[in-house]
Structures are given as structure tokens and as C-alpha cells.
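Please complete every field before forwarding. Incomplete forms are returned to the sender.

SECTION A: IDENTIFIERS
Entry label: holo-416
Bound molecule: zinc ion
Molecule representation: SMILES string

SECTION B: INPUTS
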Amino acid sequence: MAAPLHSESSFEGKIHCDSLWFGADLVTLRDGRYNIIENGAMAVKDGKILWIGPLSECPDFSTGQRTDFGGGIVTPGFIDCHTHLVFGGDRSAEFEQRLNGVSYADIAAQGGGILSTVNATRSATHQQLLEQAEFRLRPLLAEGVTCIEIKSGYGLSEESELKMLRVIRQLGATQPVEVTSTCLAAHAVPPEYKGKADDYIDLICESLLPKVVEEGLADAVDAFCEHLAFSPDQVERVFNKATALGLPVKLHAEQLSSLHGSTLAARHHALSADHLEYATETDAQAMAASGTVAVLLPGAFYLLRETQCPPVELFRRYGVPMALASDANPGTSPALSLRLMLNMACTLFRMTPEEALAGITCYGAKALGLQDTHGTLEANKVADFVHWPLARPAELVYWLGGQLPCTVVYRGEIRL
Ligand SMILES: [Zn+2]
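SECTION C: PREDICTED COMPLEX
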């Protein structure tokens, strides 16, 4: 007897899906705009969106699971595309010392600053780093993050950078969130290489990066281009090596001064250039031409009490996609809420709520090279989405802090 046609996808002539979700307005963020489908429906199969549209046009799917949201809005899962979530210790004591009037020089003399994090990260075990990162990941997940990028960069030795990257990979394998891993060995000059930054770049290019690739530990390579870190020439050597090894690049650029790192990043077709307070018009033009995303980090801007805002108006004019991220790190942005970053980006940088939301969905995905599979509610994309009992998407930006109730769906299933 001949098998029925399409036996896997049809049941009594109906198209089968694993689950059907309806009864809310779908804020799709398609093309970086709200693009709302009022009273929408989504059919999910194999962890992906099979069909999306108005409920009134929904095909008659056969499914075992139907969920009526009963109102509210649904957004794509949030994407935090720039974090340093894995590190040893924290710097809350130093934060308090500064506010109690202890000088930077005294704190540095006591081994404070990034060096204290490097020492704590080097001395921590894999398991300790994992548990501390899980603790910091929890609040981000609770508010709807379904994809997060995490960088190395506090080991600054071959052994400790590899340790950090393995912890990042393990988080991705064990936590209900998609984790992308970025090797940021060129974050700072390690104490052992003081005055010999070129020798450290040699180590990264000739020894560390090949090992990272061999073990499959990174999805991208990042560097910090700044007077207090690495020069454009040194960054370019790292970029050339990464490209030769088949890894895309990203760059911390123009945070404290203008070295045109973002133009350099664009020339190397970087996924993103991040921070960008001091980016210029030529930087914006170069980024637009290469499709490099501008990742803005209001948490660091806030904590450092910066006054120079990134040139949002130039990015708009030249059509540079803008993403937002927590930059979660122990020194300049101990931020564990992406939704708070939405508000800060609008209040401090004058982004619109629509731009801000696109920055943690549609363009957050692009900053990670995941734009074909993540970041919007569209057919064939991953079924990562969040239901909020809210009237309109601007509420996500407007409420300042706190945990809004929400239901997170990850790969088509409710994440508990
Ligand atoms: Zn950073």
C-alpha cells in the first residue's frame, strides 16, 4: 500500500505543527520596525516558526498544544549581543571605596581595577567561574533574554583565556539560552607583557587563536582599540589572523577617544563596532558601507558619567543599524537588566523606543551574524519569543527597572 503523501506534515489533510500560539498582538520587529500583527497567531514546529500572521488568516493546523495568550503583546526573545558575563570576583568593594572618597591612584596601588578581575579570574576554577556566571545570567533570563554573547578577556594568558572560553561553551550547553562565544584575548595588555604589547599580540595570533579554533571555542574575535589597550595596527594583526582562521571580527572602538577603530573594523567587514561615543561621520559612512552594526552600551556610559554621546543621528542618517547591549562586566557596567538598557538608551542617547527594541532583537541578532535565524518574529526563524501582559511595546522601555511579568518561550517551549 502506498504511503500517504506528506505523511510527516499532514494529518487528515491538515498541516501539523507542534504548538499554536494566539490571542496577542505580535510585535515582529521585522526590518527593525515594530511591524505589529494585531491579534496574531504563530504555529511552531521543530523549534522554529512555521507560520505567522493574523489569527483570522490562520490555516487549520492539527496540533496537540494551543495557547491563548488572552491579550498583551509578544516580542522576539531578547538578544544581549555584548557581555563579559564570565569573570572571577566582582568590584563592588572598589565601587564603594571610590564613593567613600578613596582615590583612583590608591585603588590602583592596592591592585584594583581590571587587574583585580584578571587575578580573580586566573585563580578561579572552571566550576567557580561557571557558578558565578550562572548567578548573573539568571536575572537576564528572567526578563526575556534568549540569546547572549559572552566574551573572554579577563584571563589574558593562554591557559586562562581557554578556561574562560570553555566556561562560556559549557553555559551554552547547559543553560536554556543560546550562547555565542567571543575571544577577546586582546582586551588589555597583561601585566607580564607591560611595555611589550606587540609580543602579546604575537602570542594571540601565533598560538592562542589557532588553539581556540582547533577546539571550536569561539564564534568571533574581538579586541579593544584604545590608547590604554591596543593600537589600530595591533588590532589589524589580530583581525587578519582571525579572518585567515575563518572567524568573524568585532571591535571595542571609539569609547574614550577617536582612533578610527570603527573604520578599521568596517574595512574588515566586522559584524559590529561597539561603544562608539567618539565615532565620526567618516566612521559612520564606513560602517554603513560594510553593514557593520553599531552596538551602543549605555550602561558603561552611565557608570563612567560620560558626557559625549555616540552619534546616533549620524548612524540614522547613513543607515547604520544600531544594537544595544548590557556590556555586563565587573568594572564599567555591572548591568544585569537589558530592559534597563532600553530606557537608558532612550533617556541618555535619545534613541526612540522602536529603535531601542530593534537594538535588542533584530539588530542584536545582526551584530552576532544571526540575522537569518534570530531577532524577529518571521517564518523559518527560531521560535524564541516573550509574551508580556502589556498594551504596547513602548511600555518595555518606559517602566524603569523592576521585573515585569512575562512568559518566555525558548525554541518553541515555555521556559520555566
Ligand atoms: Zn565590552
